[in-house]
Amino acid sequence: MSAYEKLKKLGIDLPPASVPVGAYASFTRSGHLLFLSGHLAKKAGQPWVGQLGETIDLSEGQAAARAVAADMIATLQAATGDIDRVTRIVKITSLVNSTPEFTDQHIVTNGASELFAEVFGGLHARSAFGVAQLPMGVCVEIELIAEVST
Amino acid sequence: MSAYEKLKKLGIDLPPASVPVGAYASFTRSGHLLFLSGHLAKKAGQPWVGQLGETIDLSEGQAAARAVAADMIATLQAATGDIDRVTRIVKITSLVNSTPEFTDQHIVTNGASELFAEVFGGLHARSAFGVAQLPMGVCVEIELIAEVST
Amino acid sequence: MSAYEKLKKLGIDLPPASVPVGAYASFTRSGHLLFLSGHLAKKAGQPWVGQLGETIDLSEGQAAARAVAADMIATLQAATGDIDRVTRIVKITSLVNSTPEFTDQHIVTNGASELFAEVFGGLHARSAFGVAQLPMGVCVEIELIAEVST
Fold first, then answer.
1. Among B53, B128, C1, C138, which one has the highest count of C-beta atoms within 10 angstroms of its own C-beta?
2. Partners of C30 in beta bridges
3. pTM score over 0.95
4. Which one-letter DSSP state was computed for residue A65?
5. Measured between CB atoms, which of B91, B101, B102 is closest to C35?
6. Residue A104 has what DSSP assignment?
7. Nearest Cα residue in chain A from B99
8. Residue of C35, C52, C88, C126 to mutate when probing chain A, most A C-beta within 10 A
9. Is A55 on the interface with C (CB under 8 A)?
10. Domain limits at B44?
11. Count: domains in chain C
């Protein structure tokens, strides 16, 4: 099954590719590696603001992480023209806006990891950690390295 | 001297390769680059919980970072089948669970860097910084990129 | 125009390449990728200490980020012998020492991104986020991946 068929089966319509909020690009490519910029969680097109352990609970955090992953697939589409050229999600780094007490960054991040696994198959390498604050106050930011075939 | 002989000389028995705590893999490979997921500090197999500047002092932090490095060498073994195929530790990123006052993340991280240098020779690129919180409350998390020959 | 001519036009004399503050190297290379270690903000050769949202305002933060970028170009010079061999700034990660309330990490980071764009042309991928604390208490730390031609 192609990645497109998997998206369809999951009921996911790719959002429009997100626009960088500064002097950078959404992605760059070097050889077979595609580097995606940190993507900020959005809800209905607006920054998904909040902090885990305070205003955002675990299930909302996972939903935000999954939404970031969908946005990143839209960027992969913009970068490749055909996401079936993505041969592997190599690595993600997940930054979770966290109170000093919140220690479930890995569970929040599964929201993104599971969508990538569902669409592309296989598992990626990953780091997840808690940060003091994120641009625009969003609850989750994720960056990604993918391998592309051509 | 092979990396195995260096480990033996240092009195280090590689621990069992660690198991991811979520929907991801301990490592992925793309071309000659091996990407290792963030590895959490463990002590006697349990999360090495605490914060630098609060419950963990500098020398314990360095010991935790060194323990993470040993775990990562175990993952390199699992990934390559032969750590002498590791031609270079390219880069590590060290996340140190820190109070707002603690500013010796680079000294903590030397605990890992020195072990990598002892075992593989050469020096790697590195970033080290303080984070608000880490998965399961551990004191140090490190991720790594290595270059492998075959 | 060469990168050197652009630096001259901008009135930037490259500082001496910075020296790592631990058991690591300023850069490593694997294939066509050059990995630069996290570079700490400096002012007149000393750590540029402070926190965004507290002791450092937005314009000073941008100046610090721009200073880090100049230091990184000096490291690129040391790594390549000729910065015109840098074919692309692939990715930067910007760690901004932030109070829990500060949410303009992306605007701070533009201070670095704009200098890279001015000198090398094109845009890079990027992540920017707020961290609890940085080595030596500096306000900004940036790491970088560049692509080199030979």
1. B128
2. C33
3. yes
4. H
5. B91
6. -
7. A100
8. C126
9. no
10. 3-148
11. 1
